[in-house]
Design a protein that fits this description.
Elements: E1 2-6, E2 12-17, H1 20-23, H2 29-42, H3 102-118, E3 122-125, H4 135-144, E4 152-156, H5 161-167, E5 173-177, H6 183-188, E6 191-195, H7 196-206
Parallel strand pairs: 1-3, 3-6, 4-5, 4-6
Antiparallel strand pairs: 1-2
Helix pairs in contact: 2-3, 4-5
Length: about 210
């Protein structure tokens, strides 16, 4: 599959080849769904933590003798029944979501890339070079490709700080390094805008 190659001004300067093993596979909706569920679960921090009776400080001795006081038996002041005691079945740090095999992740990402290519939602630029950090520069770039106001994912190879910082005030625009692209961001975007170097890196990593 071939797509048009544009320069930063929006003019067509040639074509580039999209590898069929990445952009022409049959989408696997069930696998993509599993990937998204796993990805979103993994975004949860899972930092909630409480102490059980064995972890609470104190309570080393029996508060009173076993018999003869008329009170209920007690072995420690750190019992969950006591104020200041441990928590019964409280949360502890954990990872949410199950691990997903790498091949399944790659297949899911290929499915999303193929779906975007089939819908003609991929644009390839020679490069994205900004002389300064300016949100207006990204807005103007998107307007040239009729993407203004739409959710867009920009993929480039290597660090591009000016582009990254110029995108941060745009809620519907996200910048990412091509090698770190994930299926959730790809699926969530209406359009994927890649540089030629970013496309080469996508071919290398996911192809």
């Amino acid at each position: 599959m071939k797509v048009k190659l544009y320069n930063q001004e929006g003019a067509e300067v040639g074509t580039v080849e999209l590898k069929p093993e990445l952009f022409e596979v049959e989408p696997n909706e069930a696998l993509v769904h599993q990937y998204i569920v796993t990805y979103l679960a993994r975004q949860r921090q899972g930092n909630a933590s409480t102490k059980e009776r064995a972890e609470v400080r104190g309570g080393g001795r029996k508060p009173w003798r076993q018999k003869g006081t008329g009170r209920a038996r007690a072995g420690t002041i750190r019992s969950p029944l006591w104020r200041g005691g441990g928590t019964t079945f409280g949360p502890s740090p954990r990872l949410y979501g199950n691990a997903m095999p790498r091949k399944m992740k790659r297949t899911a990402i290929r499915s999303v890339f193929s779906n975007k290519a089939k819908a003609d939602r991929i644009r390839v630029l020679e490069q994205i070079k900004l002389d300064e950090i300016k949100t207006k520069s990204i807005v103007s770039l998107l307007e040239r490709f009729d993407m203004a106001g739409k959710k867009c994912l920009i993929l480039d190879d290597g660090p591009n700080d000016n582009c990254l910082l110029s995108c941060r005030n745009l809620k519907k625009v996200k910048y990412s390094r091509a090698a770190l692209a994930n299926g959730y961001d790809l699926l969530n975007a209406d359009y994927v805008l890649m540089t030629k170097a970013g496309l080469d890196k996508v071919h290398e990593v996911f192809g």
